[in-house]
Amino acid sequence: MRAKLLLLFYLLPVTFLFLSGCGAKRTPNLERIFAEARTRTGKRPIIVIPGILGSELVNRETGKVAWPSAFRVSDNDLRLPISPDLKANRDDLVPSKILDTIKLARLVPDVYIYHHLLIALSKYGGYTEGDWENPGATGDRDTFYVFPYDWRRDNVESARELIERIERLKQKLHRPDLRFNIVAHSMGGLIARYAARYGGADLPVDESPAVPTWAGASGINKIFMLGTPNEGSADAFSTLLQGYSLTEGLRRRIRLLNKLSREDALTAPSIFQLMPHSGMVHFLDGNLEPLKVDLYDPAVWRYYNWAAISDPKFRRQYEQGEEAAEAHAAPNVLDAYFAAVLKRAKAFHAALDAPLEGEPPVPLFAFGGDCEETLFAPVLLRDEKKGRWVTLTEPRELRLSNGRKVSKAEVTRVMYAPGDGRVTRRSLLAETLAETRRASQLFETSLPIVYAVFACDLHGELQNNKTLQDNALTALVSEAMK
Q: Could you give the number of structural domains in the chain?
């Protein structure tokens, strides 16, 4: 059952009513708690950034919705074009809005994605949703803006777009001094962190170390992170291997929504950038001993037969048929793309992990879950009979080389760690680098985290968790702009 829950809440921030988290039955009465606070005016404006798969994608030419969608059609394919020039790999899909609520079918309950978060901001916090293009005279206070983006693309590109939109909004508001608080879920927190550290700047092209300039701090005040994988997520690696099905776990396995296949995932640079960072990668061998693996090396992926890049059937699509006629479809171009996307992920991770000097101007607030077993260290087994490697991302009973049988429960303890089912507590708090450099007076972390709260809920439910909303709203509505 746990494995099905993990798949269901894997990347898309979504929940079904019958798959609730493990929190206490009693929840805060936010309407009463914030009865006075929501009437307070002058609150700093907010930008809401969803996580991966949390923005609707539509075809700019036809207006058809490609994600989320019940069926896949050729002009709404989720796969980006493939070439070593990652910036040029574009299609006709564009982000339109944040996923609020999805109506799957008549007999299936609505799926609330960011609905309850937006309701909490407006109904309890006293904020009004603003219009980026027409913010009005009061758009610089008591307002929240939603930032949908193409979650397939490079996170640096999304961060640059965020900075540009902030600067345009400040101009429209005639407030060059205005700084926004950001509420970001999952990958949205990585986009916000990069934007704050580097503004609209790209990653270094010569592989030199990135040096945080805090260029984005002129528009960003504080970042509230909900389940952000600051050290990466082993589940993102699992998605590249297996793909992701939103409806996996439904009792009848009804195909209600299109699946994000591993072929789709291969074309999305953002998913590679969600993988565990260098120094935070953990694998185990057949004896459950640590195994050193370089996730940035394409040869390692070929050796272990990982992802669609190693699938002969997928590779043949680039050697014959209609795709072979396209300029980007040659096998050597496919391999060059894969090397480029891994290199880009490595540089992105290094930029986020770069050491900080002095007092960081943008403090971080962390909100997460730590009651769910969360993939931490996949196991690599050698199947000698079939002459291939088997990668375990879910625990099972094993027999070690000395003949000892290891129970599934024991394997679970070494493969998994406390988290929200997708992001471990350790990753959210960025505890690994804290062993060499600590940046918080309160927490074991390499990041400037000034506040952290945990609850028992799944990754896709964190933004809807009333206990976490209570804590976040307390910090948000108490801050009046100076």
A: 1
Residues 6+ apart with CB under 8 A from 31: 123, 124
- The pLDDT tens digits for 19-29 are 334 444 689 99
Residue 98 lies in a domain: yes
Q: The tokens 């909004």 sit on which residue?
A: 169
Global confidence as pTM = 0.91
pLDDT of residue 465: 96
Domain range spanning residue 155?
2-477
Alpha-carbon torsion (309, 312, 316, 319), positive or negative: positive
Query: Is residue 17 assigned to a domain?
Result: yes
Q: What is the pLDDT of residues 188-231, one digit of tens each?
A: 999 999 999 999 999 998 889 999 999 999 999 999 999 999 99
More confident: 71 or 39 = 39
